[in-house]
Amino acid sequence: MTLTDHERQMVALVAEFVDERVRPRVREFEADDVYPAEFIEEMKKLGFFGLLAPAEYGGVDVSTACFARVTEELARGWMSLAGAIGGHSVITYLIKTFGTAEQREKYLPRMAEGAIRATMALTEPGGGSDLQAMRTQAVPDGDGYSVTGSKTWISNAAHSGLIGLLCITDRDASPRHRGMSMLLVEPGDGLTISKKLPKLGYRGVEACEIVFDDRRVGVDAVLGGTPGQGWAQMMRGLEVGRVQVAARALGVGQAALNDAVRYAQERETFGKPIWRHQSVGNLLADMATKMSAARLLTLDAAERLDSGERADMEAGMAKLFASETAMQVALDAIRIHGGYGYSKEYDVERYFRDAPLMIVGEGTNEIQRNVIASQLIARNRI
Ligand SMILES: Cc1cc2nc3c(=O)[nH]c(=O)nc-3n(C[C@H](O)[C@H](O)[C@H](O)COP(=O)(O)OP(=O)(O)OC[C@H]3O[C@@H](n4cnc5c(N)ncnc54)[C@H](O)[C@@H]3O)c2cc1C
Fold first, then answer.
1. For the chain, what are the domain ranges?
2. Looking at the predicted structure, is the pLDDT value of residue 1 above 80?
3. How far apart are CA 213 and CA 21, in angstroms?
4. Measured torsion, CA atoms of residues 351, 353, 356, 360, in degrees rounded to the nearest 10
């Protein structure tokens, strides 16, 4: 992976922010489950909300590989902060790639500075995996659309000024996905965002239900201006999203590995540091090896995405492997900490609560396997 000097400086800046500002205070924010407004404001100033926005719109405009490294560093401090830029960055990518000139002009400058934060609304109460069965629809009405339906588990929804909404605009289309569009919807009349859904980890950042009840939008809300393109647009966006989730998993896994390596040298039993017991040393060796493999897969997917080629298989592999690795590494870090691993005094219990989100979010790992298998066959058809 080759990052430019500017990109390397960006990653170093994030690492410094994480080590000096985030890690010393994360337990306090996490325990209270409070929205980390202070960190978010600092992240805006540091340009983290503009990572994928073009420079002409005030963005930092880094490669996907750099975006992944920045995400990893943020998640090494606190996964919730990496989550806070996740959906926002996917919608930035979609507007930059598919948006009309007016949409880019209208949203990208303010999104780049974090003045508008965007969220991505796909999942419905009836299901997240079977997206084509979605029910939220935008019915043509006058010179725009009337949107009705509901979405759930939408991250950052309460703090969003823009919702990237995947919905049905043509009920009769066949195949069904040709009747789907991405709408850029701003909060307002006919749109209700529920209170935060309680959850295991990923604290501080809210996940909410959004209800649309005759929410009116103009035809200019359709991403790219032509209805029926939403499914294809979102599938490309999910490639970015899955690299981002893989990178979040890397951050959580790396933090767990770092803590385990430190503790295994400090803690002594039977007259020696525990890492010298072969079982513990082997655990550490396997954790480090899997983390390196996960990082290479993630950077490979990022580079493929930047090359312009279809990257769903690579992003799926990265997300699948990195998230399962993070979960295993978090568990093994608890194992190495013994009873203290189960205590709130150490961070490893948080990694263990945060890791499962990356297994489920942005398409479950079962869905990733389906994507990988179908691409594998498509690329190797006999
Ligand atoms: C904290 C949090 C934040 C989230 N943020 C967002 C967000 O910002 N935006 C958004 O749109 N969504 C968000 N989600 C939703 C997430 O993407 C979905 O939960 C996920 O896609 C799974 O959908 P589901 O929960 O409806 O599970 P289901 O689709 O009901 O799946 C249930 C189980 O069945 C399995 N399964 C289903 N179909 C298949 C199949 N064909 N083959 C094999 N196995 C299958 C699944 O893998 C899973 O194990 C978030 C979720 C959480 C928990």
1. 5-116, 119-228, 231-379
2. no
3. 41
4. -130
- The active-site residue, picked from 7, 30, 239, 362, is 362
Query: What pLDDT, in 10s, does the model give residues 140-196?
Result: 999 999 999 999 999 999 999 999 999 999 999 999 999 999 999 999 999 999 978
Please state which architecture CATH assigns to domain 5-116.
Orthogonal Bundle (1.10)
Distance separating alpha carbons of residues 187 and 213, to the nearest angstrom: 12
Q: Residue whose CA is closest, atom 24 of ligand 1?
A: 128
Residue 266 pLDDT greater than 80, yes or no: yes
CATH superfamily of 119-228: Butyryl-CoA Dehydrogenase, subunit A, domain 2 (2.40.110.10)
Active site residue 268: no
Q: Within 10 Å of residue 159's Cβ, how many Cβ atoms?
A: 17
Distance 50 CA to ligand 1 centre (A): 27
Specify the pLDDT at position 2.
Answer: 84
For ligand 1, atom 11, the nearest C-alpha belongs to 122
Residue nearest to atom 30 of ligand 1 (CA): 127
CB neighbours of residue 220 within 10 Å: 13
Q: In the predicted model, what is the mean pLDDT of the chain?
A: 97
Mean pLDDT of 80-95: 98
Taking the domain 231-379, which CATH number applies? 1.20.140.10
